[in-house]
């Protein structure tokens, strides 16, 4: 068992209203003191339990592999991605018709419009069709 592995410990018996359980902690942090503190927390002054065949003890061990250093530069250059990806089309405008332009661009692509390239590139035809849709 490695120090960074996770461990959960629980004790259950018929005399207890609730099981005594230490939630997942690193194995190096699971000590007798921690287990006894949890037993004291659960047991009330009138409760007791007998160590016999009805007592169930469960220990769950999760082995965690040591991680590497990861890849450096885990970021996406969005501008470059949009330019390189053919499935993304950047709508560039300053006339507050972005939604209309996007809808027109998508619809003309689906419809196979003969001026699709001009519309995709944001030429005047895209503006005209967007204004027609918007107004």
From TrEMBL:
It comes from the Eukaryota. This is Uncharacterized protein. It comes from Mytilus galloprovincialis (Mediterranean mussel).
């Amino acid at each position: 068992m490695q120090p960074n592995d996770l461990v959960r410990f629980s004790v259950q018996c018929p005399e207890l209203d609730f099981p005594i359980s230490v939630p997942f902690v690193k194995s190096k942090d699971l000590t007798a003191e921690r287990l006894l503190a949890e037993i004291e927390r659960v047991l009330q002054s009138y409760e007791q339990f007998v160590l016999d065949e009805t007592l169930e003890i469960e220990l769950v061990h999760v082995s965690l592999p040591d991680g590497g250093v990861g890849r450096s530069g885990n970021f996406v250059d969005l501008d470059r991605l949009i330019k390189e990806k053919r499935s993304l089309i950047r709508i560039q405008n300053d006339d507050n018709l972005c939604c209309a332009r996007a809808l027109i661009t998508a619809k003309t692509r689906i419809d196979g419009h003969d001026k699709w390239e001009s519309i995709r590139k944001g030429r005047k035809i895209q503006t005209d069709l967007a204004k027609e849709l918007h107004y």
